Amino acid sequence: MKKIGFVCPWFGWNIPGGAEAELRGLVTHLAASGLPCEVLTTCVREFRSDWGKAAYKQGAVTERGIVIRRFLPDHRNREAFRNAFTKILAGELPLSDREEADYLAGSVNSKALYDYMDTHREEYALYVFLPYLFGTTANGVAVAPEKSVVIPCLHEENYIRLRYFKERFSKVRGMAFLADAERAVAESAFDLSRVEKAVLGAGVDTDFTPDAARFREKYGIREPFLLYAGRKSRGKNVYTLLYSFERYLQEHPDSDLKLVLIGGGDIILPDSLEGHVLELGFVDATDKYDAYAAADLLVQPSRMESFSIVIMESWLCGRPVLVHGDCAVTKEFTLRSGGGLYFEDYFEFAKAVEYLTSHPQEASEMGARGREFVLENFAWDAIVRKYTEFFRRLAGE
Amino acid sequence: MSGNKQDVEELMQDLRGQIAAEGHTEKELEEARKLAYLDGSDKGPEFFYPELAAKARYLDTHYENPILFAPEGNPVKVALQKLILKTVGFTYFRAFRHQNAFNKEVAGTVEELTAFIRMQEKENAALREQVERLEAQLKGKAE
């Protein structure tokens, strides 16, 4: 098979981001399975960097057995981009054609990358783009739509309403989704009638052995606890968890339940929660897996997830999850796996917490069902097999 | 997998039945629902300042003064303008370039400030809801 070129706005082994981590895992595991893979990207360091500034030298390097080709980023019209971007954020849609063009031109782009893709197209079986909302994807798929595959990593948000995405994604060869719910959102936003589609999921590392007792001993926690893992921000709906937990304690004054938070970000804790919430910040991978195993349940209050690796990790550690009923993806996984419950208001939150903390046998069974679900669908060997079959079919092999 | 879905939905129905049996008022149910949506993602730009944003956009596209005008008018005027350009043009161009650079910074700053105001207004709206909710809770306790 010819090479698969994975096209992304930036690439690094330690940069943050869900799509970035997914790409690293996918390329590494596919390459290890024998599929020839390369990364085609810009010299920009990562999402938080200046998108017009090169942090790496242009050219090809081989790292961990993967060829990474970096190209100089284009100069950006930041003022025009900012104008379009703030309108998208504020929901002032639709944008004019000019504003949409400004948004895409002002995103991260590389004419050198597009030229390379054009002149070397015969060397590649497919170009695979992710995630969807940057210039490298929207403008990159226009180079060779007949051999372009998009892994959008999207959820319901304002960006998907841009006409440029709709027009360009209607012509690509294929699109791979992480969940059925994501596919439904994409099909509602784009015309994918002529696009090969598949729900393939994302890979999850399964090779670890958590130790609940080790976590409780290290952090001195004896009480039952809810766990939140991830970035602490309003966008992740963390305040719903905090204020729901606060009210739960008010209504259950005899409860010794705690809330443990791991991950970055800043939040303002209500004074009444002092002594009831343990903020651990960033912890290493061992502590993270131990925390999942030690928790009574993991709460994922976010309403905007395209996959949610944390609920998968909680299941792998044998613990159930409580997700927001308004997040199509996490609710879908929870229903399919039987690995937890969901809530759409405070009363459901409270009843679900009561149930899961007072029925340890049932909670453990839910965790076990979740683990089985992850191993069956998202272990790397399953993911590699599904993506390889999909890519080979699209490449006509 | 459909069995799992059925199990979860049956359990959810059971929990919802328990909630219904507690006989909450419409207001209590509404408060409980609001508590599940504190990310602000379901809110539109209620406090957005369209006029200010429009002015900021005008500044963003009109900040640059044209440095060079083609001499025009009768031959005497054209000759005079050319003379001025040749003699004091250097200082004149430099001043205009400085002014344009300054204007560009001002326009960019105003645009960023309006974007910041929009974000703050959204944040304020969410906080206002939290305050209202806490006030309602206090009022309920006092009663």
Please provide a written account of the structure:
The complex is a heterodimer of chains A (397) and B (143). By secondary structure, chain A is an alpha/beta fold. Helix content of chain A is 41%, strand content 17%. Chain B has helices at residues 2-21, 26-35, 50-62, 75-142. The two termini of chain B are 49 Å apart. Chain A binds chain B through residues 79, 82-83, 86, 89-92, 234-237, 239-240, 243-244, 247, 301-304, 324, 326, 334-349, 351-352, 355, 369, 373, and chain B through 1, 3-5, 7-9, 11-12, 15-16, 18-19, 22, 24, 29, 31-33, 35-41, 44-45, 48, 57, 60, 107-108, 111-112, 114-115, 118-119, 123, 126, 130, 133.
Per DSSP E runs of 2 or more residues, the count of β-strands of chain B stands at: 0
Query: Biggest interface and which pair forms it?
Result: A-B, 44 and 43 residues
* Class from secondary-structure proportions of chain A: alpha/beta
* Total helical elements of chain B: 4
Overall pLDDT level of chain A: 94
Residues in helix, % of chain A: 40-55%
**Roughly how many Å is the radius of gyration of chain A?**
22 Å
Order of helices and strands of chain B: HHHH
> What does the largest sheet of chain B look like?
none
Largest sheet of chain A: 8 strands, mixed
- Text of the CATH class of the largest domain in chain A: Alpha Beta
Detail the poorly predicted runs of chain A: none
How many H/I helices of chain A? 15
- Structure summary, number of beta strands of chain A: 14
Oligomer: heterodimer
What general form of chain A does the structure show? globular
Structural domain count of chain A: 2
Summarize the structure.
Chain A is an alpha/beta fold and 397 residues long. Chain A contains 15 helices and 14 strands. Chain A is globular, with a radius of gyration of 22 Å.
Task: Based on the model shown, name its key terms.
heterodimer; A: 397 residues; alpha/beta; Rossmann fold; 8-stranded mixed sheet; 6-stranded parallel sheet; 15 helices; 14 strands; 41% helix; 17% strand; globular; B: 143 residues; mainly alpha; 2 domains; 4 helices; 78% helix
